[in-house]
Amino acid sequence: MRSSIKTIMLSFLSIIAVGCKKEEKSPSYNKGEMTILTDESFKSITEALAEGYMINYPETKIKVVTKKEDLGFIDLLNDKARIVVMSRDLSPEEIKTYEEQVDLKFLPSKFAADAVVFVVPKESPRESISMEEIQQGMLSEYKSFIFDGANSSNLNFVAQKLKKQPKQLKFSVISGNKNIIEELSKYPGKIGVIGLNTFSRPYDKESEQLRSMVKILPVEYKGRLYNADFENLRKMNYPFTRVLYFLTNEGNFNIANGFIRFSCTQLGQLIVQKEGLQPYNLYRREVQMR
């Protein structure tokens, strides 16, 4: 009798244990913790979207960690992160590696149009820069362009636009987009290369302070000058417009995919707009008049 009871109890506990394990492993987009890797150039928009998601789903905790774009992608491949923010186009070899290691189709989730911009101190007489000057300057030993480091999104994107490998380009380095702005006046004749999202927030005091220190140079391309404004980002006219997108290695609908969906819906796109960037997914406003 005792043996039968013991067997029944063990079976019952086994069922409970299995049930608990299933519950722990079941996907959940509205509770749990996650880390997002992002290049410092688009940290602000990533943090704003993460904050919006946590407000909507209070049982989630999202940590935003800055890491150079290429290194973040490697961490994603090695399962050290579930989601990463990217801007440059991956090569066919990189896409193949992603699909093989992650075992998912390469489906970038595009959510915002950002830009790489060229800045000089406010007192500089320079008013614009041409594509030819950029191409020549990036091959010059004078190293007139200042980037925030190797493996960074800004350098990767400019190299891709110029159809060069980053290692083929000549440039100076000051670590961090904000530091470039703050220290640029110490290097007469140099041009800073930063991400627009560094100071794109319209009513943010820190962004206003940073904007007051430099001027963004329009880029001359095919005989026309293009500013990095909403219209030129939306139409992709500004030559260094870049589309930000998420990549994940999450195969189910957990926090990473929940966050991606949120960022691409109307609420997430409103956050993108408030950050001073161009939403990738446009929503029409319909007004009914009676």
UniProtKB/TrEMBL annotation:
Pfam family, one: PBP_like_2
Domain PBP: 30-263
Record keywords: Signal
Gene3D superfamilies registered for this protein in UniProt: Periplasmic binding protein-like II (3.40.190.10)
Protein name: Substrate-binding domain-containing protein
